[in-house]
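Reminder to self: tokens first, then the designed residues, so the page reads top to bottom the way the pipeline ran.
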């Protein structure tokens, strides 16, 4: 078979397997409706004026009313706790997982499969099972470090491990860090400069993706915090919903908006600079 015939055949196969424009719009429309309908329903609920069927903005303006500040004090504390947990969890990912992945990629390539297996295990374990196993561990953690909210980040570090690993690994696999590091070393650069000025700039997108996804997972986690008797955003929203369902839905929408913005920043910030250089 000639080269032209093979190209024609491969083109025909690709065209035949690709969905048409109408099919693509239908698929996107169905997927969009699955996400949009619940969110629009939540937005409509926040403007609902009781059972009368009218609309009002009182539920939104009530969030900034000083008279209601006492009712939301626990929620604002929980938001601060979740933000602290997000920062500590991201620090665990960047200071423990990222160097380990780079070290294995450069020096111990035979351990890649082992590291991947270890990092993917948490996604196969239900959260309720994971927290049952962590409960005895946290009994020791409380005795050693106290019951501060930030200690929950150790459990969250395990929870976000599969997502952070995939985000970094996809970028790490697309960059020939071995060749880059060897070239930098041949020019006299130390391992510190190789890591800081050569490898990390090329892994910018993967690092940002891992960080933002970790933040989104931490902001949406409920099971571990609830069973370990810690107060974070989701547990506070559950408590608030029992007294003010409108405010709970509003804060849930704001949390969704923040997660959506973080996911958008994954692509945006990854394009703000080049992929890195030896400069």
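Designed residues (279 positions):
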């Amino acid at each position: 078979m000639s080269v032209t015939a093979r190209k024609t055949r491969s083109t025909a196969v690709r065209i035949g397997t690709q969905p048409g424009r109408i099919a693509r719009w239908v698929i996107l429309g169905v997927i969009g409706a699955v996400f949009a309908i619940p969110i629009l329903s939540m937005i409509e609920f926040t403007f609902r004026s009781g059972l009368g069927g009218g609309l009002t903005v009182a539920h939104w303006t009530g969030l900034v009313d000083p008279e209601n500040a006492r009712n939301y004090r626990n929620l604002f504390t929980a938001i601060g706790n979740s933000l602290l947990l997000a920062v500590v969890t991201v620090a665990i990912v960047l200071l423990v997982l990222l160097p380990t992945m780079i070290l294995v990629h450069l020096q111990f390539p035979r351990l890649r499969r082992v590291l991947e297996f270890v990092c993917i295990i948490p996604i196969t374990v239900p959260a309720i099972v994971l927290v049952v196993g962590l409960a005895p561990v946290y009994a020791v953690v409380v005795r050693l470090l106290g019951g501060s909210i930030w200690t929950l980040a150790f459990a969250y570090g395990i929870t976000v491990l599969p997502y952070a690993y995939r985000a970094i690994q996809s970028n790490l696999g697309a960059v020939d860090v071995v060749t880059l590091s060897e070239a930098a070393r041949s020019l006299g650069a130390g391992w510190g400069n190789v890591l800081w000025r050569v490898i990390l700039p090329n892994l910018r997108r993967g690092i940002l993706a891992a960080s933002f996804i970790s933040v989104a997972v931490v902001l949406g986690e409920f099971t571990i915090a609830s069973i370990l008797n810690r107060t974070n955003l989701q547990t506070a929203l559950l408590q608030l919903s029992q007294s003010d369902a409108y405010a709970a839905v509003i804060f849930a929408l704001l949390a969704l908006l923040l997660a959506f913005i973080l996911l958008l920043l994954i692509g945006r910030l990854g394009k703000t600079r080049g992929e890195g250089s030896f400069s």
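Confidence is low (pLDDT under 50) at residues 273-279.
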